Amino acid sequence: MSTQTFVGQIVHSKSLNELEVIPNGFVAVSGGKIVAVGSDYSTWKQAAGREVEETLLSPSQFVMPGFVDCHIHAPQMPNLGLGLDSPLLEWLEKYTFPMESRYRDTAFAQRIYQKVVETTIRCGTTLAAYFATNHKESSIILAKEAIRQGQRAFIGKVSSDCNCPSYYVESSDEAVSEARDFVKRILELKSEIVKPIVTPRFALSCTESLMGSLAKIAKENNVNIQSHISENLSEVQVAEEMFGKLYAQVYKDAGLLSNKTVMAHAVHLKDQELKIFKETGTSVAHCPASNTNLLSGMCDVKRIINAGVTVGLGTDVSGGHNPSIKDALVRCLDISNHLHFVRTQSIKGCEEQQNITNFNNESKPLTYQQAIYLATLGGAEALAVDEKVGNFIVGKSFDALVVETDSFPIFNCGLQSEGKEPERDLLRLVQQFIYSGDDRNIMKVFVNGRQIK
């Protein structure tokens, strides 16, 4: 078996606060797995004693881990840019439920899901946690399409048995049986890269009985769980009135919170709910674009991280209007900066408001290096697959992007320091891509060593 090596500039996150840059490095891949990574390529090549296929990167290119989208609604892609002047619950009724109900038509599902997977791959998403719809057969189509195109994915058939339109709701018995059969059928595909994920839409659309049954299905099959929580203040109020307890406690009592659970949004989690998340190992998918578009609020990611909760990023298409995690990354930085402004201005303008936050070094806004972690390794950790993907560690799968920084819309034009400060030059390229690049700068995408773009 030949070994493929990528020789040149390498970037990946080792932790939230450590972005490793290797200006003159290499990553070696065999059988889809990373077998070596470092800075002394010639020594490794000589010692390897094996056939090596080399990809030599140009000075304007670098390799980084693929993006992880922890929360995206595949069936909502046709609604991109629609209804973003509406609050969450109104948006669901007017736009989302009518669109999702169309996926009872499997031909329609096949046509849209092919484009969804193509689009997210083009944007550099090597791993996506997809919400599908209530329809089992069309949800299976999404799984097969991800397998066909080579994208790593979690596929969730949505379950809901109350508080949905009459044309788009399941009976409790149907919701349980269909969820169980869906998980079984996806597992029978025996795919290394595509897995099922149990998906109660959210507590407002699920009875406690259904949530408990779904938790049992997840536990029996050792599969992941995804849902929504505390996206919107009205939603939080309704949930607490319906169940008579904290929103997070509803999910915990149903058995849905675990170290294989990711909950989207979490904008308005109370301190006690953060403790519940930490105790259960539950992660958060931060979706800054949709939180803004649907007027849900500004999620304080630093507060969640400081509470010991793992965070990844989500596009939340189509509440989020862009299918690119790179866009979510920049919007995450925007929100972090805006929260910083609010705190500093409150403190400077009114001394008695200092108690709104502990204003210290931990309250500083996120850096772009930390946001890269959220978009890659943090997302893998949130989905409990960080032992497989997320960065360049020997033994992990090679899920990666080759980024070109000397093509539109970045005008790099070789403006570097002629090799005098290689690490600084590489960080300059990374920063330009993060803030100013787009899918046109992502030249190649690899999943499990296979080139899929």
From TrEMBL:
<protein>
    <recommendedName>
        <fullName>Guanine deaminase</fullName>
        <ecNumber>3.5.4.3</ecNumber>
    </recommendedName>
</protein>
<dbReference type="InterPro" id="IPR014311">
    <property type="entry name" value="Guanine_deaminase"/>
</dbReference>
<keyword id="KW-0862">Zinc</keyword>
<comment type="similarity">
    <text>Belongs to the metallo-dependent hydrolases superfamily. ATZ/TRZ family.</text>
</comment>
<dbReference type="GO" id="GO:0006147">
    <property type="term" value="P:guanine catabolic process"/>
</dbReference>
<dbReference type="GO" id="GO:0008892">
    <property type="term" value="F:guanine deaminase activity"/>
</dbReference>
<keyword id="KW-0479">Metal-binding</keyword>
<feature type="domain" description="Amidohydrolase-related">
    <location>
        <begin position="62"/>
        <end position="451"/>
    </location>
</feature>
<dbReference type="GO" id="GO:0008270">
    <property type="term" value="F:zinc ion binding"/>
</dbReference>
<dbReference type="GO" id="GO:0005829">
    <property type="term" value="C:cytosol"/>
</dbReference>
<dbReference type="InterPro" id="IPR011059">
    <property type="entry name" value="Metal-dep_hydrolase_composite"/>
</dbReference>
<dbReference type="InterPro" id="IPR051607">
    <property type="entry name" value="Metallo-dep_hydrolases"/>
</dbReference>
<dbReference type="InterPro" id="IPR006680">
    <property type="entry name" value="Amidohydro-rel"/>
</dbReference>
<comment type="function">
    <text>Catalyzes the hydrolytic deamination of guanine, producing xanthine and ammonia.</text>
</comment>
<keyword id="KW-0378">Hydrolase</keyword>
<dbReference type="InterPro" id="IPR032466">
    <property type="entry name" value="Metal_Hydrolase"/>
</dbReference>
<dbReference type="Pfam" id="PF01979">
    <property type="entry name" value="Amidohydro_1"/>
</dbReference>
<comment type="pathway">
    <text>Purine metabolism; guanine degradation; xanthine from guanine: step 1/1.</text>
</comment>
